[in-house]
């Protein structure tokens, strides 16, 4: 009987040792896999940036050298935005996967916030008008503070000063205007609502003097006269604004023809509503 008990005990110890060994091996395998992916991404980004002469072109844009054509500059800056998106995604995933906060995590947060602010600056350089430039900076500052945790606020503040100085010389936007846009984002305000005059698409197609964007619900806005065409995209979310029949009836009174064309298909999307700090007066980030 003692031999049986001893055998069972030894078997249990053996199973525990094997399980611990397998657990250690699994953790090491996951660590090696993450490290390999990170090294691959780093190599791809470095090669990508060198191939596109990214640094060379960015410095020419910053310091006013006009050897590169404007089209090439905009194309390369567009590539830089994509690279910064990759970096932000990489830093964000690493920060979220860490259970214990340490110095390395703080560095990742600062790097994420820095990449976010730099991305906002590049998009503001590419912006068609000043309102869009301010909106990009506002949104970048807001995201840097939200995702960069404690250091995000500091990075946003310092980045706002640097961005204001650069854009003042590049696009003749007053530095205090840029600082105000960054401050509003840092405070968590609704950038899309504040800079609703951003009509970058119309500017790109040279229609900014022809098409006027009026932000607001059709039930609330005031129009001087009836219109010929109504372009609509009804949305319902989280049991808010789910009833749309009244909206159609109200819009019918604004149209000269009274005719509507209804969509023959629909699309469902998931929005990251949990990041909204002021959803009808409720902070969903808590």
TrEMBL record:
Keywords: Signal. SUPFAM superfamilies: S-adenosyl-L-methionine-dependent methyltransferases. Residues 1-20 form the signal peptide. This is Methyltransferase domain-containing protein.
């Amino acid at each position: 009987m003692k031999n049986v008990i001893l055998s069972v005990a030894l078997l249990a110890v053996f199973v525990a040792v094997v399980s611990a060994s397998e657990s250690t091996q699994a953790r090491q395998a996951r660590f090696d896999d993450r490290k390999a992916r990170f090294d691959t991404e780093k190599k791809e980004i470095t090669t990508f940036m060198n191939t596109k002469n990214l640094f060379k072109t960015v410095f020419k844009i910053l310091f006013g050298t006009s050897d590169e054509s404007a089209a090439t500059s905009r194309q390369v800056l567009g590539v830089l935005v994509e690279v910064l998106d990759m970096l932000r995604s990489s830093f964000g995933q690493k920060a979220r996967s860490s259970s214990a906060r340490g110095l390395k995590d703080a560095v990742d947060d600062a790097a994420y916030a820095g990449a976010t602010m730099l991305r906002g600056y590049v998009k503001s350089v590419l912006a068609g008008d000043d309102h869009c430039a301010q909106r990009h900076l506002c949104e970048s500052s807001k995201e840097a503070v939200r995702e960069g945790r404690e250091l995000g606020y500091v990075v946003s503040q310092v980045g706002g000063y640097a961005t204001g100085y650069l854009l003042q010389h590049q696009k003749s936007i007053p530095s205090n205007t840029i600082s105000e846009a960054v401050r509003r984002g840092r405070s968590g305000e609704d950038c899309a609502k504040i800079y609703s005059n951003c009509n970058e698409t119309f500017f790109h197609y040279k229609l900014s003097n022809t098409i006027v964007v009026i932000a607001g619900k059709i039930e609330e806005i005031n129009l001087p006269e009836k219109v010929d065409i109504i372009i609509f995209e009804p949305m319902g979310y989280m049991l808010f604004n789910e009833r749309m029949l009244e909206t159609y009836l109200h819009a019918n009174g604004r149209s000269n023809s009274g005719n509507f064309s209804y969509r023959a298909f629909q699309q469902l999307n998931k929005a990251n509503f949990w990041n909204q700090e002021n959803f009808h007066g409720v902070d969903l980030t808590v």
